[in-house]
Amino acid sequence: MAIEDEDKPKVKVSHEIGQDLSLLSVEELDHRIALLKEEIGRLEAAMTMKRATRAAADRFFKT
Q: Rounded to whole angstroms, what are the CA distances from 11 to 40, 55, 62?
């Protein structure tokens, strides 16, 4: 393992896909849903930007 890997802070995962939900309260589930909706928005924004970049490159190289 590289030394750089040891220096990186560990990211706490607030939700894991497929995780057992039986021990979570309604409030915890609501919080996780809100976090996941925010993440979906972030992913959609990134995808939109990448599509725009790709479209610009396609237009540039077609000329």
A: 18, 33, 42
